[in-house]
Amino acid sequence: MYRDNSLVPIETVKIAALGALATKPRTYGEVAADVRLFTSRIVGPSLDLMGISIELLRAEGVVTDMPEDLGQKDPRLTLTPDGEAMLLKLLKAPIRSPNTELSRLVVALKMRFLHLLTTPERLEQITLLRTLTVSERQRLVELEEQSDGGNLFKDWLALQIQLLDTRLTWIDGFSQRCCG
C-alpha cells in the first residue's frame, strides 16, 4: 500500500484474482484469463498490471487447491479464510483520486465485488467514491474560475465538470439501490 493506505498496482491485481475466486473456484488459467481480461478492458495493456503469480498467492496462504481436485493436473483454486480476509481488507482500502488509470481500475474492481461487503461497508465505499468525486469537481471548478486559458479550455473544463455531475447523480442513485 501507498503511505495513504491506497492500493499499489500489485494489490489491485490481487483484488481481481481473489475476487474472481470469491465468486467461484477456478483453475489457474481461468483466474489468469479473468484478471487479464478485466484489467485490460478497464485500463488497457499495462506492464504494471501484468498479474501476480498464483504460486505467490499460495505462498501467502490466501489460495489453495480444492480438496476434491488434489492430484489433478489443473486443480481448481479457492480462497482460504486468510484470502477472504485479505480480499475484504483490499476492497475497503482508500481510493486515490479517481482520475488515474489505476484508480479507475480500483473503482471498477470495488464495484465488481461490492456485493461481498456488508451493507455498512458498501455504504462506506460509496461515500468514499462520492467524496473523491466532489473533491475532483471542486478542483476543476476552481480551475475554471481562475483560468485565462481561452474558451476552448473552458469548454473542456465544462465538459469534465458535467461528467462529474453525472457521476455524482449516478452515485447517489446507486447508493439508494445498493444500500437503501
Mean of all residue-level pLDDT scores: 88
Order of helices and strands: HEHHEEHHHH
Q: Write down the overall geometry.
A: elongated
Q: CATH H level of the largest domain: which superfamily?
A: Winged helix-like DNA-binding domain superfamily/Winged helix DNA-binding domain
The radius of gyration computed from the alpha-carbon positions, rounded to a whole number of angstroms, is 19 Å
Can you tell me the residue ranges where pLDDT is under 50 for at least 5 consecutive residues?
none
Structural class: mainly alpha
- Total helix count? 7
State the helicity in percent bands: 55-70%
- Order of strands, main sheet, comes to 1-3-2
Structurally, how many domains make up the residues? 2
- Percent strand equals 5-15%
Provide the CATH architecture of the largest domain: Orthogonal Bundle
Tally of extended strands?
3
The termini sit apart by 31 Å
Can you give a write-up of this model?
The chain is mainly alpha-helical and 180 residues long. The protein folds into two domains: 1-117, Orthogonal Bundle (Arc Repressor Mutant, subunit A); 118-180, Up-down Bundle (Monooxygenase). 66% of the residues lie in helices and 5% in strands. Strands 1-3-2 form a three-stranded antiparallel β-sheet. Helix 1 crosses helix 2 and helix 1 packs parallel to helix 5.
Task: From the structure above, extract its key features.
7 helices; 180 residues; 3 strands; mainly alpha; Arc Repressor Mutant, subunit A; Monooxygenase
Summarize the SSE layout with pairings.
Layout: H1 9-23, E1 26-27, H2 28-43, H3 54-59, E2 63-65, E3 76-79, H4 81-91, H5 101-112, H6 119-146, H7 150-179
Antiparallel strand pairs: 1-3, 2-3
Helix pairs in contact: 1-2, 1-4, 1-5, 6-7
